[in-house]
RNA sequence: GGAGGGCUCGCCUAGUGGCCGAUGGCGCCGGUCUUGAAAACCGGUAAGGGGAAACUCUUCGUGGGUUCGAAUCCCACGCCCUCCGCCA
């Protein structure tokens, strides 16, 4: 969310930047609504001040034994008027809030033009796509042949877009999670958290999923409580400090959590229906950082580095791209995607998304800081995947497959797995 | 699910209808003193809205209500604690 005043002051520049992501800002409408709300606030303030004065007069009149009947009547009249003005004020404030909650973050000018992934600009590449002396299989064929992935039974249990991992496959998932968490906590300075997977509407609003994207979420309504399943650990992690004032000296804060993620994938019918790429439930290690707003762009570079370290450590070829202004998430002002090479598809696919949200989420969730001089301000929030387990499993299987159908594990992972190869029959080779 | 107790400005705490946006202590910040530090003493120290500013309004868990006037009275809800039941 933006400060409505700041948006109005930015004027045409705000309109231009929002237009880059396909949002048409009605600047005059906003200005008008803001000024009407402010006038209403001012009027209500005046009336309340008057009402206080009259109450004082009643008291002093009563002390002197004078008749208070007339004064009391006047106070009652003022109260009625206050009621009316406050109702108007509430209505205007509600409309303004609703409008503000629906305006996406302002893309930085460093984000390229465009409205889809086709306009992403490559920043750098790491590693080379492997070459095979045989036609490489995709992770579904590999995983099912090895008996470590079972999509058929997942569908039996829950319908499409779910997965079951078995034996060495399940162990691979668990090992990856431990590997990523160790990397972030021991080498990158993140504090590991274990967080709720069900959160309130207010929490979902803090990070920007609500009110606009409810259809992307799974919702529960048990015992008259509306709770949503988290689509990413970014939601509980970034909201940890909602309504708080952090000590500026403690920044930056770096948090990580390993959680399942639940996404309805509404509107993606027929897209990536095969395999581990797009599921209703997947597991992910997430990174979240809180920092001073002026540090956020540098912090984003740092965080991308942490995500890259995950891939580099596993020996997976990847590239980093800057997302186009119109392709970024609602809360982001700049996003880098990391794409891993998938031999089964013969191309790079998104495996991590690292976003600088500036103060956009902090204003929604009211996450502030106070420096030594007592000066208060909003913090900046950043989030990045580091990394999703399913897509990483797919990348390892496809990149490390051998002609006989066996798969070699990345050396860095061996201590976490207890085996170095998954044999063609699915047996882990110690 | 049942019974009781609680929720005040970072923490603890005073406050049972008006001069209370709210007492005191701790903590924190600044100053005096000191070679420096500690101690002592003095001063400051909640958040938010509106306003260029002066200033003003709101907030004592949340929402309603009574009243000219509510931290204080009434109602509902939420959260926390203790005990009972159930449960991983």
TrEMBL record:
Q: Name one GO molecular function term.
A: ATP binding
Query: In which pathway is this protein known to take part?
Result: Aminoacyl-tRNA biosynthesis; selenocysteinyl-tRNA(Sec) biosynthesis; L-seryl-tRNA(Sec) from L-serine and tRNA(Sec): step 1/1
Write out the residues that bind ATP: 263-265, 350-353
Task: State the superkingdom.
Answer: Bacteria
Q: Where in the cell is it found?
A: Cytoplasm
Where mainly found?
Answer: cytoplasm
Look up the EC number in the record and give it: 6.1.1.11
In UniProt terms, what function does this protein have? Catalyzes the attachment of serine to tRNA(Ser). Is also able to aminoacylate tRNA(Sec) with serine, to form the misacylated tRNA L-seryl-tRNA(Sec), which will be further converted into selenocysteinyl-tRNA(Sec).
Q: What is this protein called?
A: Serine--tRNA ligase
Organism in which the protein naturally occurs: Mangrovihabitans endophyticus
């Amino acid at each position: 969310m933006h400060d409505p005043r700041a948006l109005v002051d930015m004027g045409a520049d705000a309109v231009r930047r929002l237009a880059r992501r396909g949002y048409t800002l009605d600047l005059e409408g906003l200005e008008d609504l803001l000024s009407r709300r402010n006038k209403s606030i001012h009027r209500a303030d005046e009336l309340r001040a008057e009402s206080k004065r009259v109450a004082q007069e009643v008291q002093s009149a009563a002390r002197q034994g004078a008749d208070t009947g007339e004064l009391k009547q006047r106070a009652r009249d003022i109260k009625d008027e206050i009621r009316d003005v406050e109702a108007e004020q509430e209505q205007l404030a509600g409309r303004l809030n609703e409008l503000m909650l629906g305006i996406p973050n302002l893309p930085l000018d460093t984000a390229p033009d465009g409205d889809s992934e086709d306009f992403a600009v490559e920043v750098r590449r790491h590693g080379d796509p492997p070459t095979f002396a045989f036609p490489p299989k995709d992770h579904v064929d590999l995983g099912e042949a090895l008996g470590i992935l079972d999509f058929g039974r997942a569908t039996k249990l829950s319908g499409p877009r779910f997965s079951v991992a078995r034996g060495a496959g399940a162990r691979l998932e668990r090992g990856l999670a431990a590997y990523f968490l160790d990397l972030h906590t021991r080498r990158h300075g993140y504090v590991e958290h274990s967080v709720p997977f069900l959160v309130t509407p207010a929490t979902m609003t803090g990070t920007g999923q609500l009110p606009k994207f409810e259809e992307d979420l799974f919702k529960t309504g048990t015992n008259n409580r509306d709770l949503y399943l988290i689509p990413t650990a970014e939601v509980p992690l970034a909201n940890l400090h909602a309504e708080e004032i952090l000590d500026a000296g403690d920044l930056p804060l770096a948090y990580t959590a390993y959680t399942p993620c639940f996404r309805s994938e509404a509107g993606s019918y027929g897209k990536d229906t095969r395999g581990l790429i797009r599921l209703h439930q997947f597991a992910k290690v997430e990174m979240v950082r809180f920092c001073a707003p002026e540090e956020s762009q540098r912090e984003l570079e740092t965080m991308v580095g942490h995500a890259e370290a995950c891939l580099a450590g596993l020996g997976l070829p990847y590239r980093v791209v800057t997302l186009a202004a119109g392709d970024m998430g609602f809360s982001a002002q700049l996003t880098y995607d990391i794409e891993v090479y998938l031999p089964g598809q013969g191309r790079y696919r998104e495996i991590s998304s690292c976003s600088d949200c500036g103060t956009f989420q902090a204003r929604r969730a009211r996450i502030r800081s106070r420096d030594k001089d007592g000066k208060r301000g909003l913090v900046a929030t950043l989030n990045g995947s580091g990394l999703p387990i399913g897509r990483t499993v797919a990348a390892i299987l496809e990149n490390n497959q051998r002609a006989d159908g066996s798969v070699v594990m990345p050396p860095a992972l061996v201590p976490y797995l207890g085996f170095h190869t998954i044999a063609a029959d699915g047996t882990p080779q110690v």
